[in-house]
Amino acid sequence: LDMVEKANPLLEKLRAETGVTVDSSSSTTTDDEDEDDNTLARYVKPLTNVLILKLIFNLSAAYHTISLDHVKKLTSGLGITFEQMEKSIVLSTQSKALSVRIDHRAGCIRFGNPALESDEMRGQLSTLAKRLAATCTVLSPPDVGSILTERAALYQNVRSTLESEHIATLERKVIIEKRKEEAERQVQERLREEERQRKAEELARKAEEGRRLAREQKLREREKLQKIQEEMDAMEKKRYLTAMGRSVENMTAEELREVDTAALAKEHAEKASKKKEEAERKVKEAAKQLDYLVRAVRIEELPRIKEAYEAKVKEDRERYEQEVVEKAKKAKEQWETDVKEKKILNECSVFNYTNQFESKLMAARKIVHEKLCKVEDERAELEAEKGKLVRARKRKQDEERRKKEEEERETREAEEEAERQRQAEIAEQRRLREEEAERKRQAELARM
């Protein structure tokens, strides 16, 4: 099951070498046409499909049920969507070499045995039962005498029940009388039920009258809200008209009512959009003109730049050759001077005293080195003390900031609690007012 992890680096290497990305391997036809120009890019998608089919076969051999999340985790490195994974599973089941069912409700994939689900195996048990029954009939034929005995016993049972059947027929009159009495009782109950329904309808009529009054009250309130909404719409229309540069002082209420708010908003938005598009167009034209100008300047100055570059290269080459000749000449002169000076020093035996000179020089350097080390140690200690001081100040600032945030949080919570209490009091007052209004309305209904 780890073949996906092993094959993923190889696919990534193949994508990197061919320039095929994950998006391009599963996108539009244009990307497929670009892949045709590559020699190896055409094999990326087939290799991925083969790897998916191999993974499905291995999972069917190892599992009977596997979750969709685990399958997504196994194929996360292949750069394919789960829809492509479902398509590959459907294609693998068409050959009937594999039995797979995707259960989206349970979030899992169920594998089965294709041999047991074939058409030949479906009717195997019924066919076997029929053949076994035929074999049993041949091997052990039925007993005709027992069958006749059972049939005679059945007839005897029928003759014994004839008397009881006759008595039941005679009792039918009593049953009919009882049914008549039951029918009369049902009629009386129906009359009582009709009376009860009439009283219920009367109560329902009164209740409907109360609801009618409530509807009329709501209708009056709705008309009031509608007037307020019309005033707000008129104010909004005036605002839009003023923003569009129209005069609203001489317009009547009827004219304002005929104006469409949505059309005004759309017209206002279109004008703003046109203004913005015009500004963008001017900016694009200016940018395009500047681009043309810069390109023209570069095209004109290109030959001159090439001439200057060639002249500079030629001058640098000549100067380099001259410097090489002069450097060689100076090196030869320096070598001759060094040889002469070495000969003079050997004649004076100067090299016999170099060890003493070197020891004195190193002693002086050691003193200077120790002094510099001491200065550096003092500087390091000072830097450490400064670092401790900075860290202490930072901890103090963090603590002060934490305390300040805690105080602000407590203040904010206290304000929120006060606001909740105020909202609760307002809701309680509103509920009391509604209950008082409901009692008054019920009293009015009772008086009516």
How is this structure best described in words?
- With 448 residues, the protein is an all-alpha fold.
- Helices cover 82% and strands 3% of the residues.
- The chain contains 13 helices and three strands, in the order H-H-H-E-H-H-E-E-H-H-H-H-H-H-H-H.
- Strands 1-3-2 form a three-stranded antiparallel β-sheet.
- A hairpin with a 4-residue loop joins strand 2 and strand 3.
- Helix 3 (44-62) crosses helix 5 and helix 10 crosses helix 12.
- The two termini are 84 Å apart.
- Mean pLDDT is 79; it is low at 22-38.
Strand and helix layout:
Blueprint lengths: L2 H16 L10 H8 L7 H19 L2 E3 H7 L7 H13 L4 E5 L4 E5 L6 H4 L1 H16 L4 H17 L1 H9 L1 H72 L9 H6 L2 H88 L5 H94 L1
Antiparallel strand pairs: 1-3, 2-3
Helix pairs in contact: 1-3, 3-5, 10-12
